[in-house]
Amino acid sequence: MERVQMELTVVEKHTITSTFLLLDQAEKSFAKLFYDCLFELAPMIKPMFKSDRQLIEQHFFIIFSTAVGNVTHPESLRTTLLNLGERHRAYGVESCHFGIVKSALLLAIQHELKGQCNANIENAWSKYYDFLAATIQEGMLSQSHIAQC
Q: Can you tell me which residues the record assigns to a coiled coil (predicted)?
């Protein structure tokens, strides 16, 4: 599989880090809101989450924070994302789930930023998510073939 290159501009990277500062202030509510959006959009994937919801939200926010902290040098995330992909494959994640997760993430960002959200913010997050998701999917493919919905 071809390695995905991230092509965020300096402005987009700044947009991600600056909006994250607002999301970080609402750490617990943002992670909860993300999963509320995700399970509303795709209730059929909720059974894949076997751990305690609070623990799942905490893990999500750690990964989310790490991704933002490395937005200027995303290659440093590669091994972490590939390993995450291998774990997600074991959980039964399929390629079609990534679009749903992206929608849930953007909805949560829109909600949390309220009137401050705009197309530039959504586009920056969307592009970065696409890079992260592609690398995770690469990890899912490393040992077996990803299922298609």
A: none
Judged by DSSP in three states, 95 sits in: coil
CA distance 92 to 2: 23
Q: What does pTM read for this prediction?
A: 0.88
Q: Which CATH number fits domain 28-141: 1.10.3720.10, 1.10.940.10, 1.10.490.10, 3.10.450.50?
A: 1.10.490.10
Structure confidence at residue 127 (pLDDT): 96
Reported residue count of the chain is 149
Beta strand spans in the chain (E): none
- How would residue 144 be classed by pLDDT, with cut points 50, 70 and 90? very low
CA 111 from centroid of its chain's CA atoms:
16
d(CA 138, CA 136): 5
> Do residues 17 and 68 make contact, with C-beta atoms less than 8 angstroms apart?
yes
| Domain ranges across the chain | 28-141
% of the chain with per-residue pLDDT over 90: 74
Burial state string for 98-120 with b = 16 or more CB within 10 A and e = fewer than 16: bebbbebbbbbbbebbeeebeee
